[in-house]
Write a structure and sequence with these properties.
Blueprint lengths: L2 E6 L5 H12 L2 E4 H11 L6 H14 L4 H13 L3 E4 L4 H9 L3 E7 L2 H11 L8 H12 L9 H7 L2 E4 L4 H15 L1
Helix pairs in contact: 2-3
């Protein structure tokens, strides 16, 4: 069983990579966002990025820095299928998954303005924000000395492959095929 983790900046294309790998390579998908959204709803909190971040930090603090992805990994292990876990956000999550077997971490990034336009187009409930809020959210999630909080910068540095997604879908798919050839 292969586990591919996906990390990256807001709106960089994590979901597009997931779609490609599930459709073209037969991977099963487990979403940190979906896991957290269920918990946000269970707690009766507003469905927004602040709630998702707060719940994630709380779960990590009260359990372990890798708690969320460990829960998703257990689900994946029961399935026995090649799996994508999206979206890795702490170094503890990376380290935990690396201990569990064949794990490849993909990071994706793009220019901020391009990423902001993408989140506006996807029109998710947590993406109804202005550009300044987008940048503030990213800054908050980019670094932290607290192992229970998001540190995207460190996760991207820990990635086995970093994909730049400033171009077309075909350019992204070409990069993914190059990565796939190297990991197969």
């Amino acid at each position: 069983m292969k586990i591919v983790g996906i990390t990256g900046t807001l709106g960089a294309g994590k979901g597009t990579i997931v779609s490609y790998l599930t459709k073209e390579k037969g991977f099963t998908h487990y979403s940190v966002r979906d896991f957290l959204l269920q918990e946000v709803k269970r707690r009766g909190m507003p469905e927004n990025r602040d709630s998702l971040t707060s719940v994630a930090n709380d779960l990590r603090k009260n359990n372990s820095p890798s708690y969320i992805v460990d829960q998703l990994y257990e689900r994946a292990k029961r399935s026995g299928k090649d799996t994508i876990i999206e979206s890795i956000r702490t170094p503890g999550e990376v380290l935990s998954l690396r201990e569990k077997g064949v794990f490849i971490l993909l990071a994706v990034d793009a220019a901020p303005q391009i990423r902001y336009e993408r989140i506006k187009m996807r029109n998710s409930i947590t993406d109804h924000i202005d550009y300044d809020t987008f940048l503030a959210n990213e800054k908050r999630e980019m670094t932290s000395d607290d192992p229970n909080k998001q540190n995207l910068k460190k996760c991207i540095e820990m990635a086995d492959f970093v994909i730049r997604n400033d171009g077309s879908l075909n350019e992204l798919y070409e990069q993914l095929e190059e990565v796939w050839e190297r990991i197969s």
